[in-house]
């Protein structure tokens, strides 16, 4: 087997690994790059021929793992996309949303050029029609079932505990007298994530590809994080401001809503008006409710009770609905995308609230290098938002305990379950983080390790 690391190495975005074995070609994820120069990077041609790819294994629905699937199809892919049922459902709504954004951005750039007297037409990265072509290629698989795809290759998905439907992939292959197994962690969830089950473990493998998003740090406990969330909301409301929570529409939004609802039922917070300014988040929440097979025991009990919502919950559907939120000066919790603040409706709410010292922004997810969210948490005093320079006067909170990713200790615990000594490839982390995590893994376990460069190939 040959494996090439084409994305999601020495960075936390654009995950894509290419495998060649027994005259078959496969991809593990096909993610969109997010951050600086993202538009130019995503337009670059694939480093393989899409028409030659037989299978795409999709570990979960987040756009940094799934976002270039329509481009792959547009460029000639005609194979099968293997993933869990919940991931297939979430991917459908997310890819349609992404296509709408691509089309609108291309239309806006074309109009901008025409206003400057430039006769240029900008093409979207992919279209809604490309997504429509992609959807029938998805094949829904269950956790835990070993599936054979021929030529000495079989696989199974197990629960990665990251978001609804997220999976770790076990892949067996036989290109010599001895069968070997490689495990792709996907994004590993932390224990105790709301709603979904804790990550499952694999106990033996010859090779392991593991993410390292938080490979150099520890999260606060969920209890400490909830205490901090309650304190931030109470202080902000007492000052007469609004709470802004930039959140990924899939995963983090549902976790935060679940937690806020629980806090009101426990009478730790009262009379909460929560505005979810994201049609995608509303659709994703409906997908969550349609997949109770992925819930943990506590979530199952809560969702099985009728009329269990203790929040004043408002979903926006139109631009006008979104604009009306900006007339609210205090007492609102506003959850909006994008999670890293580089686009989406959160920017409009920043424009109306970020400069107000009585307001607060609560970051509950990872902010990649170069994104607006990263600049704010690193202490920028002025940021450029929607064509304007906006002063950062709001109180900024970073609550890592709500992250859907395992921290350093949990990543090491996940690796520590392997009863043999697999060769380990460390991916999906900023370069310094992956290298630091590699040194810890070597010292703790004595494993042979690699932090691949983008485009690097290994024969295993």
UniProtKB/TrEMBL annotation:
Highest taxon listed in the record's lineage: Bacteria
Keywords: Hydrolase
Domain Metallo-beta-lactamase: 13-233
GO molecular function per UniProt: hydrolase activity; RNA endonuclease activity
Domain (Beta-Casp) ranges: 253-376
UniProt name for this protein: MBL fold hydrolase
Species whose genome carries this gene: Dissulfurispira thermophila
Origin organism lineage: Bacteria, Pseudomonadati, Nitrospirota, Thermodesulfovibrionia, Thermodesulfovibrionales
């Amino acid at each position: 087997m040959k494996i090439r690391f084409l994305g999601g190495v020495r960075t936390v975005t654009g995950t894509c690994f290419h495998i060649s074995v027994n005259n078959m070609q496969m991809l593990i994820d096909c993610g969109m790059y997010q951050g600086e120069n993202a538009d130019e990077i995503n337009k670059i041609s694939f480093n393989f021929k899409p028409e030659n790819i037989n299978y795409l294994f999709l570990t979960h629905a987040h756009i940094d793992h799934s976002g270039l699937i329509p481009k792959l199809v547009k460029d000639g892919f005609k194979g099968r996309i293997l993933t869990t049922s919940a991931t297939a459902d979430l991917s459908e709504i997310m890819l349609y949303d992404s296509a709408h954004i691509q089309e609108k951005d291309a239309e806006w750039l074309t109009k901008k050029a025409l206003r400057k007297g430039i006769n240029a037409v900008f093409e979207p990265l992919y279209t809604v029609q490309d997504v429509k072509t992609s959807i029938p290629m998805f094949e829904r698989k269950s956790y835990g079932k070993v599936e054979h795809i021929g030529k000495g290759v079989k696989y199974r998905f197990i629960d990665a505990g990251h978001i609804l439907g997220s999976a770790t992939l076990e892949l067996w292959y036989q290109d010599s007298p001895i069968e070997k197994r490689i495990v792709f962690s996907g994004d590993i969830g932390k224990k105790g994530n709301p709603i979904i089950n804790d990550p499952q473990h694999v106990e033996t493998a010859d090779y392991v590809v593991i993410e390292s998003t938080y490979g150099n740090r520890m999260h606060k406990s969920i209890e400490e994080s909830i205490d901090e969330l309650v304190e931030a909301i109470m202080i902000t409301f007492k000052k007469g401001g609004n709470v802004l929570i930039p959140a990924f529409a899939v995963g983090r939004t549902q976790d935060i809503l679940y937690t806020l609802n629980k806090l009101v039922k426990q009478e730790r917070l009262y009379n909460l008006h929560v505005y979810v300014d994201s049609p995608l988040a509303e659709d994703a929440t409906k997908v969550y409710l349609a997949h109770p097979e992925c819930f943990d025991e506590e979530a199952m009990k809560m969702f099985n009770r009728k009329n269990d919502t203790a929040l004043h919950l408002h979903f926006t559907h139109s631009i006008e609905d979104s604009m009306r939120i900006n007339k609210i000066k205090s007492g609102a919790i506003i959850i909006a995308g994008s999670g890293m603040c580089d686009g989406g409706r959160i920017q409009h709410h920043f424009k109306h609230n970020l400069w107000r010292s009585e307001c607060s922004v609560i970051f509950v997810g990872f902010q990649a290098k170069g994104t607006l969210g990263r600049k704010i948490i690193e202490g920028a005093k002025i940021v450029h938002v929607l064509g304007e320079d906006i002063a950062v006067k709001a109180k900024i909170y970073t609550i890592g305990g709500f992250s859907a990713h395992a921290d350093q200790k949990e990543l090491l615990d996940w690796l520590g379950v392997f009863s043999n000594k697999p060769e380990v490839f460390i991916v999906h982390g900023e370069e310094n983080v992956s290298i630091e995590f590699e040194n810890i893994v070597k010292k703790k376990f004595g494993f042979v390790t690699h932090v691949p460069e983008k485009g690097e190939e290994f024969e295993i």
